[in-house]
Design a protein that fits this description.
Radius of gyration of chain A: 17 Å
Helix content of chain B: 10-25%
Helix content of chain A: over 70%
Number of helices of chain A: 8
Oligomer: heterodimer
Distance between the termini of chain A: 54 Å
Distance between the termini of chain B: 48 Å
Number of helices of chain B: 4
Number of strands of chain A: 0
Structural class of chain A: mainly alpha
Number of strands of chain B: 28
Chain lengths: 167, 435
Amino acid sequence: LDDNDQIAQLYRQHAGAARAIAVAITGDPAVADDLVHDAFLRCVSRLGSLRDPEKFRAYLLRAVIHAAASHFRRRGAERRSLERMASRPGPPASATDQGLAGDLLTALQSLPIRQRTAVAARFLLDWSEAQTAAAMGCRVGTVKSLTSRGLAGLRSSFPDREGVGHD
Amino acid sequence: MTDIDDRLRDGFRALVEEYGQALELPDRLRDDALRQRRSWLGHPAVLVAGIAVVVTVIAGVSALIGAAVRGGSTEPAATSNPTASRLAAGHWQPIPSAPVKSCDQTAAWDGTELVVVDTHFGLRCRARAATYNPVSNTWTTITSPPQTAGGNPVSAWDGTRLILASPATSRTFAWHPGSDTWQTLSPLPGGETTGTIVSTGSMTVAAGLGISGHGVVRVGGVYRLDGTSWTALPDLPRPRKGVIGDVALGGINHALYAVVSDSISHTNPEDIHTTGSARSLRLDPTGWTLLEHGSHQPLSQLSATPVRNGLLVAGSACPTYAGCTEEAGAAGLLSPHSGLSDVQSPDGMPYPWDETAGGTAIVVTFPEGSIGASIAGPRAGTTWISDVRTGEWLRGPTASATTGGAGTYWTPHGVISLGAPAHSGLGGGILVPAK
């Protein structure tokens, strides 16, 4: 494979997963696309230095998680997100309004950024606690804590089959 | 698994289907990527990196040859309590891949084997369990835990059975090794999710953390296991400010102690981390007594393991508000006489990633870090050992990079450090003390 084909193949294989977690964390597909593009470029530029090129997927996903964290830090979006969360009157719209994926996205946005990131890494990427901890730059115990609280938050805000949130 | 959990799982699946499909490389990104790749290939650092790889390979082969020459005496010999100096002079022995994936697991030492249980909630990992025998260096599959156990499990060995609970639910279970069966115990009476569980030698106790609203932890119920049901002990006292964030329980001389991390993060929207202070408490016949000496460190995400006449409490700290983007680490020793005192780290050691403790020593290992993350500290596999009597830190042997990250456990045969590359079987290493 030449460089062109290799890069296209890497993108085809891994960009989808990167976009999914970026959407889960940011809640915005357009922002997610930007983050994935930037992260992909960074990882491609380091492709030759990777100890194990087979780990490109993991590197890309970690880069996306870091980029998402930087995005929120840069923009102060966490504060605005929390303010929105505090002013939200009730559970998100019913399941029939926006589909399961939309419902989950809405519920995810009600979580603090770090809980959201941990939950998305654990349950969307199926990463282990150790992988998630390494990507987030924190301890495994922190991931346990963030995940369990995030999951509890999702359970309370995710609409059930009748479109009613749990609490 | 509850109906809402099934729906959440379906939600994650739907999200992957909607946004995670294979994508074709856009032309503009292709051009940028090719430019990045070509400019990098011409960089002189490539040659340096190549030489470094060759040197590393040669060093690795030499190490393997050395290990083969030393071979033949790697079987861990049981010793009641490996000392710090013997651990520091010991060696790491790889343990084989487990029939349990590296998702999220809990483990407890049953006196002979390490019982490892995974109750992951995600899309691909499923509840599995196995035991690891350090003498034979082998894994044995045991009956899988119920799917309803929930994720992020915590466990304790109560002398005859493994008690399993989950911070995701209030359900609890017991595994009986004789019959290799799982028994459903009563849920925590207050309906809290289980934050921690511990066996003090005279009783098994769980602390539950109640959740309200958007993941804010509000109360801490404590329960003693009597047979198959839980009896309420006095609730953990609420903090003057904030809410209970985390709790670690432990027994010292058959008395029950708790270190409680109080969170004030919800009071400050600028702070996305758990920030607060730690209180140490002892359960007396009249209720919880606050020990006078608390830690100055804002400990959170706590764990506690017994050491000689005390408890090692390890956690994280994020001591500033908006400026805190990564956790610092923190550890303390809880003594019945002097309360919680900070553990001083050796120079250059940022904080423990994986730690365990026994009667004589604290062992800290550092698993593989992440590329691109600005985590400073020792390289993967670094091991530090502290003598709990003197507080002296000793540099231990270096483990392989894949060791660690999934928990470290003290046994009479040595210190087991679980870890694994992504989605392969759980493995790791055992730090075998010198004879």
